[in-house]
Amino acid sequence: MARVVVDVMLKPEILDPQGQAILGACDRLGFEGISDVRQGKRFEMEVDGEVDDARLEELRQLAATVLANPVIEDFELRVE
Amino acid sequence: MARVVVDVMLKPEILDPQGQAILGACDRLGFEGISDVRQGKRFEMEVDGEVDDARLEELRQLAATVLANPVIEDFELRVE
Amino acid sequence: MTARVGVVTFPGSLDDGDAARAVRVAGAQPVALWHDDADLKGVDAVILPGGFSYGDYLRCGAIARFAPVMAELIPAAESGSLPVLGICNGFQILCESHLLPGALTRNRSLHFINRQQRVRIESAGTAWTGGYSSGQEILVVLKSGEGNYVAAPETLDDLERTGRVVARYEGGAPNGSQREIAGISNEHGNVVGLMPHPEHAVDELTGPSADGLGFFTSVLAHATASAPVPAGPG
Amino acid sequence: MPDAPHLDTVATAETTPDTPLPYAELGMADDEYTRVREILGRRPTSAELAIYSVMWSEHCSYKSSKVHLRQFGEKAPQSDALLVGIGENAGVVDVGDGYAVTFKIESHNHPSYVEPHQGAATGVGGIVRDILTMGARPVAVLDALRFGPADAPDTRRVLPGVVSGISFYGNCLGLPNIGGELGFDAGYAANPLVNALCVGVMRHEDVKLAQAPGPGNKVVLFGATTGPDGIGGASVLASASFDDESHAKRPSVQVGDPFLEKLLIECSLELFREGLVVGIQDLGAAGVSCSTTELAAGGTGGMRIDLDRVPLRDSRLTPEEILMSESQERMMAIVEPDRLDAFMATCARWNILATEIGEVTDITAEEEKRGGRLVMSWHGETIVDLPPRTASDEGPVYHRPYSRPADQDALRENDPLRLRRPETDDELRDQVLRVLSAPGVCDPRWVTEQYDHYVRGNTVLATPDDGGMVRISEDTGRGVALATDGNGRYTRLDPYTGTQAGYAEAFRNVAATGARPLAVTNCLNFGSPEDPGVMWQFAESTRGLADACEVLGTPVTGGNVSFYNQTGETAIHPTPVIGVLGVIDDVTTRLRSSFSPDLDGAKIYLLGE
Ligand SMILES: Nc1ncnc2c1ncn2[C@@H]1O[C@H](COP(=O)(O)OP(=O)(O)O)[C@@H](O)[C@H]1O
């Protein structure tokens, strides 16, 4: 049993209105010194058995087709 | 300048319909051996200056009020 | 014989009944298609209706793309033979399936928007807009939370150059869409994705106008004009 | 797994009469607990206590309001339109051409304060399941909202969350939002009102009731798995009787899954069409406790349930927690044994989990006299053995003392005529602008633009018209119109007349669409019934509504009472929200609230005093 984490973030060139809204809220609440916020997604998967290279490749495939949309998003995958 | 990452996940006892939907999709697509998926949020903040303990406490405060909803979510914060 | 237009129901589809009604009002015959059946029932055209397929939990349209019915639809659409209209969630599914370029993201306001919306038809050269004249303004319904169209600048330029921007919002994009894009098509003009809802504007009693009917009469004319299309290999 | 020795079985309860149970923590009064012991002839098991405590709660038993609500039946005007009256999940009204309509309004005030988005979302989900349970297809929703001052920091947290929750859940279900209300007053700070109304349509012959007839019929739980949602109360029981620390902290928040609910709606309607259901009940606030006791009480009176079979999201749940869980998107059906396979197949097609958890049983004449017999087992042991009617129908009834509040006269004397009148044109202009720009009066578009009005293609009128209207038959053009109204300030000043004013406004709003008002639903939002002043407001308000309904000829078909709406010691303004339903033979003849541009030159008349 392993936990695989996939972080998905909008590509830097894509506008992130949620991040902007949070930045605005920080300002209004007086939290200073934050110059940028971006919001993405985090997936935690419980994977049965051992995660060897072949399995990892399969999971990367899953992330690239299902969890992230490569047109607008980048992702990172790691075993925890 | 530091990057602070905040991971926000639904508390384990709270229903995660998104995770369930993804699990269902994995099944249908024939990705086997995934026993659970949970979907959360990931925030990346660019913070000016140095992040000392006091600043970290402030950011933790921010996360608890703006980024996470402590009624249903837990969060973790780290400097990268 | 009149044209038979398939309307796909995914779990979570909501405007499938409305799309079928619009097809009927236009004088064609609606045919119900089920997400789980890899069978297009030999229809002349297909509509992917609005709604929240699979709850839209992951990303809008991301899971619907893998439905068995899409395995039949994608090659037929790619070949240019099968007219496909994706409305709202259907547009999102078409982008996720890479039948159309770009992606639809959260509205700039971060809120769901429901309103009557003026839209300009930019291209009458598709299977679904042949009945309009280019530059014609129509009043339809916009209702979506993730209708903000984004694509790389080269893609946008390419869409403009090849006349594949099908519709634009009048008076600025309420959702932040790049270049006010409300709808686009593929290079053959058979696949059209549209964020606003023409099927909610086929009758003045229940919609803001009857301006949306043109999409459905256009495909009817298109289907009757083209020779019958074989349903693909097999 | 809970330790077997700690399991509180019926057998244990018989031999340990003095074991103390935390009934007070569960909100049960001493005499109520004594009554339970009398009914059972022994102390209850902790599972039985769980059932009685939720079923006899104010929320489920209407123990403080019942004596007043009776008037709605007693004074009800003669109406041929009423097919199912008060008492079922929702009333059913004949609207002609063989169509029947069911509608009801319900509150989700407290959950919406704790977690605005999920609280409001699950409020919509709950009322929609009530309507579905009657056998109807839900076709539209309305929402009546009250918040603290628009500029209060807490309103900034609560309002956007509530609106996004209603928008998210209703839009995902594909139900057009055709109207509602938005009000602001300092009295609702820290106690917002979130009332949601749903209307559904069916053919006369399709009406379903919550009952479990036919011994041998199967009890099937379908929809979501059961998790620890909304069982803050149950943890008291679990920890007090088992001192198991894993249950120390349970969320009181329920999380909704509108996608699952959409599938549940389509699946249930298909089950109805195929004739696979003989009785049905949704799992509302009191979950499995409520659905089993009510279904059994409405049927033979006998039922056997195997609680181990309830599919769980969290395997650590105790039987008490399973009984009290408020997990959303669940239904319970009674199915004939030879239809069970077909039932399961339809559920599978919609990807809906369905589990047989028990069956309807025969009972003896002796058991019948006691109120039936509901038996539940856990790991092979009997942990519940009680007469279900005593839990569902024979809860306590209180005649709470009431008296006119001492400050009522002073309040009445503080007449608006004492206010300074505008003396110059500028002052008048300023006042008009201030009224028009008040948050409760100005354009509510920020809210209503987030709601889908068009889905299903039958919405004839919605915001900004006075009443909402949906077409229910494309063949005949028949439609129904709905409006909700209520005014807490008027009701505070004079509960009797103020309630009538709210009803009259909703009635007018429906009539103004061209529809004929037929029936009424209501959501009564009040402070604590233990406060005699609040109880006086409640008595006056219900009397006012019953009297007015008698005069205008529309029966009350159902509704909901929400007590304990208060901030600290201060009760909210008494706020009855009245929903009126009307019918129109042909929706093309509807009237709009706006002046039509093609009526240029037409005369304008003011009607009334
Ligand atoms: N919370 C709400 N949800 C849906 N519609 C609403 C809501 N609040 C107000 N509306 C709609 O906005 C319009 C104006 O509301 P309101 O100012 O209360 O009208 P009136 O004063 O005429 O009763 C009506 O069509 C009403 O149904």
TrEMBL record, chains A, B:
It comes from the Bacteria. InterPro entries: PurS, PurS-like_sf. It is an enzyme of class 6 (ligase). It is found in: Cytoplasm. Keywords: ATP-binding, Cytoplasm, Ligase, Nucleotide-binding, Purine biosynthesis. Belongs to the PurS family. This is Phosphoribosylformylglycinamidine synthase subunit PurS. It comes from Lipingzhangella halophila.
Automatic annotation (TrEMBL), chain C:
Its main location: cytoplasm. Keywords: ATP-binding, Cytoplasm, Glutamine amidotransferase, Hydrolase, Ligase, Nucleotide-binding, Purine biosynthesis. The keyword Ubl conjugation does not apply. It catalyses: L-glutamine + H2O = L-glutamate + NH4(+); N(2)-formyl-N(1)-(5-phospho-beta-D-ribosyl)glycinamide + L-glutamine + ATP + H2O = 2-formamido-N(1)-(5-O-phospho-beta-D-ribosyl)acetamidine + L-glutamate + ADP + phosphate + H(+). InterPro entries: Class_I_gatase-like, PRibForGlyAmidine_synth_PurQ. It holds the Pfam family GATase_5. GO terms for cellular component: cytoplasm. The active site is at residues 88, 197, 199. It is found in: Cytoplasm. GO terms for molecular function: ATP binding; glutaminase activity; phosphoribosylformylglycinamidine synthase activity. The keyword DNA repair does not apply. PROSITE patterns: GATASE_TYPE_1 (PS51273). Pathway: Purine metabolism; IMP biosynthesis via de novo pathway; 5-amino-1-(5-phospho-D-ribosyl)imidazole from N(2)-formyl-N(1)-(5-phospho-D-ribosyl)glycinamide: step 1/2. Coiled coil: none annotated. SUPFAM superfamilies: Class I glutamine amidotransferase-like. GO terms for biological process: 'de novo' IMP biosynthetic process. Part of the FGAM synthase complex composed of 1 PurL, 1 PurQ and 2 PurS subunits. HAMAP family: PurQ (MF_00421). Part of the phosphoribosylformylglycinamidine synthase complex involved in the purines biosynthetic pathway. Catalyzes the ATP-dependent conversion of formylglycinamide ribonucleotide (FGAR) and glutamine to yield formylglycinamidine ribonucleotide (FGAM) and glutamate. The FGAM synthase complex is composed of three subunits. PurQ produces an ammonia molecule by converting glutamine to glutamate. PurL transfers the ammonia molecule to FGAR to form FGAM in an ATP-dependent manner. This is Phosphoribosylformylglycinamidine synthase subunit PurQ. It comes from Lipingzhangella halophila. The lineage of its organism: Bacteria, Bacillati, Actinomycetota, Actinomycetes, Streptosporangiales.
